[in-house]
Write a structure and sequence with these properties.
59% helix; 0% strand; 9 helices; 157 residues; mainly alpha
Length: 157
């Protein structure tokens, strides 16, 4: 999210916060009836901005909340793909280092690999941010590579 914020000249801190908080309730409230509604209610009580709360609601396709802002579209676009790229990194000896979009697109075709990742959401996310899938994948890889150590996906660990 931070990478896209910089790329789009948006508020990097706000975008990173949104990315970090969007699944804050998922472990305790994983059902569509509760997630992300429980977390967003708590964020509202804590005074978080409506734009952040709306983006978080919009990342869940079943919430009924449309994604109309750059923030909400980008959160949706990055969410599933970042998880998928993490899975790809775990099966590579060099983790994120040297990863190219073709490594990711090849794994996307294998429905058994990281089967919980919704491939349609990955494609729809790229469309919503107005990019070709390979360009979007390259952006998410670049953003994750910049934070590889913090993400635990560096080969130096």
């Amino acid at each position: 999210m931070g990478y896209y914020a910089v790329l789009l000249e948006e508020d990097e801190e706000r975008w990173r916060i949104t990315g970090l908080l969007h699944d804050m309730d998922y472990e305790r409230h994983p059902t569509p009836e509760e997630h992300p509604f429980t977390g967003v209610k708590k964020l509202e009580e804590l005074g978080y901005a409506e734009e952040i709360r709306t983006a978080i609601l919009g990342h869940a396709t079943y919430s009924g909340v449309p994604r109309t802002t750059r923030l909400s579209k980008t959160l949706f676009a990055v969410d599933e793909l970042a998880g998928f790229i993490t899975a790809v990194a775990y099966v590579r000896p060099t983790r994120l280092e040297g990863m190219k979009p073709r490594s990711v697109t090849k794994k996307l075709k294998d429905r058994r690999f990281a089967a919980a990742i919704n491939r349609d959401d990955v494609r729809q996310g790229a469309q919503e941010v107005g990019l070709e899938l390979n360009e979007h994948i390259a952006n998410v890889i670049a953003g994750m590579q910049a934070d590889a150590t913090r993400l635990g996906l560096s080969t130096s660990e």
